[in-house]
Amino acid sequence: MLTPEGPWVGLKDFLRGLDAKCRPGDKVLGETAAERDRAEEWVELFYDKLFWPAVQVYYHFMLEHRETVTRYALDRAPNYQKFIVRNAFGLWQKAMIKGIGLEDFSLQAALDSISTVFDAVETESAEAGFLGGATPGDLDIIFAALAGPLVLPAEFAAPLPAIEELPEGYREVVSRMRDRRAGILALETYRLARPTPQPPMKRERSRGGLANRLTESRAALWLARALARRRSTILLRGTVLAVNWQSVTEMLERDSDFIIGPINAPRINGVSGPFILSMDRGDPDLFPQREAVYSALRQTGAGAARDILDREARALLEEARGRNGRIDVINGYARPIAARTAAEIFGISGPSEADLMRVIRSVFHETFLNPGDDPDVQARGRAAGKELMEWFTAEIARRGDEPGTDVLGGLIRAQSSLPLEPEAVPWMAAGLIVGAVDTTATSVANSARVILERPKVLRAVRRDLDTPAAMHGWCMDALRHRPHNPIILRRTRHATRLAGRDIPAGASVIAVTLAAMQDASVFAYPGRLLPQREMCRYLHFGHGLHVCAGRDINAVQIPALVAHLLRAGGDKIVSTAARGPFPDELVVRLGDM
User: Fold this and answer.
1) Helix axes 424-434, 353-368, angle to 10 degrees
2) What is the reported pTM?
3) Distance between start and end Cα atoms, the chain
């Protein structure tokens, strides 16, 4: 199984990898040391004595029956594989014999090995009924799955032949195994644990959302430069687009004319509660929340973030180099590190790291990246927002009179001295943490991708890997070419003008920050990457009233993670993929250091 951390190869690697992803209470291999030791012993037995012998028995008999074996072996296989096997069956048959180790296969030895496992299962489950007790547990499910070729359960995940289709010798083996108590246990486990067949597993792929489409091609970047050079605003189907730097920054600075509430408030309130990114000037909670947020972030600082990301980045990169010399910069590197940093800084981690990342991405998607009001995205986002609120509420209650020194603790203390209700604390905490993971992961991936796609730039950047200020400059300018957020949405409060254009009340206005940051009057030689540009000109993290509260932390995390990646030998992009509006895969080769 391919994962962001690398491939899980073989039964034991798969089970241990899956176990590591599970939350406490749901671990595949058990919760206590004794449970895990017992599970490891059973897994070793299953792997050594059952797994391969069961597969070998199946193909020992079935490979001599071309029509039947291909009917099931090729189910849901790609068309090209079906064509090859059907037209070169003899070659495929020889390859299978060699690959599965059937050249010197002994049926009796395989059946003896399988019988050893069946004997052990029957002895262990004799008193309780199953290995897991009165009902099937994880070990029963593992055993039943591996015994599938021997008992042919109707609920098996992949199609298996009916017993009537089997060659006589194999039919006798299956009948004998089904009659044994361990075989009955396996069939009963399927009946109880999987009452309906498992649907085919598939990996969702996506062309990507608007942000990915706007930044994916050089043509889009060329168009953005042309627009910024020739126009201030554009009218497109009733929506006004601000495209050069002057019009974009003017629009964002005039926050009483171009407001954020109608855009963000319904979504933010739907997933948590009122937060500063859903408030306009005049909202009584805006400035008290801003003071609470900035005070909490100042007290926490970026030092903790740097310590965590340095340690975790080195560990993940070293592991990747030793495994296969590749790393998925998003889900195998930047995103988990950002989640671990956020858990430390904000003081909440959820039941597991996977839960934290899932919830934050779902809330982020609904809150900021669902302009079409997709009902599925909204449902996932609101459900995730409810989970997040429950985590924060429980953590606040647990702390009692000792709020702590992290961001959550700072918000608790600030709330007591500002005109804010107690429920504003989880609202503010949720609003902050939601932008702390995927924003960082996307920004690291996008800036790294721009640098890696340009060999001359890569050589120049490598000379600055140990200079944080220079790395910050390189990353910010790389993001100018592939920003994590190429547009910002606003709505007019009343009829107004922008760059000489009349705009009616209630009109949608889009600040195309991608184009604004290609404006040659502000960014000289916009096609080049220059790390010495003035930081105040970038629009990556907003402008005006609503700027990203975590921009100081991002200024540390993003260049540091890119520097660690390049220092570890990152030199070539292997593959990329998107999932909805999020870049979801950026596999990079780790070459010579």
Assistant:
1) 90
2) 0.84
3) 28
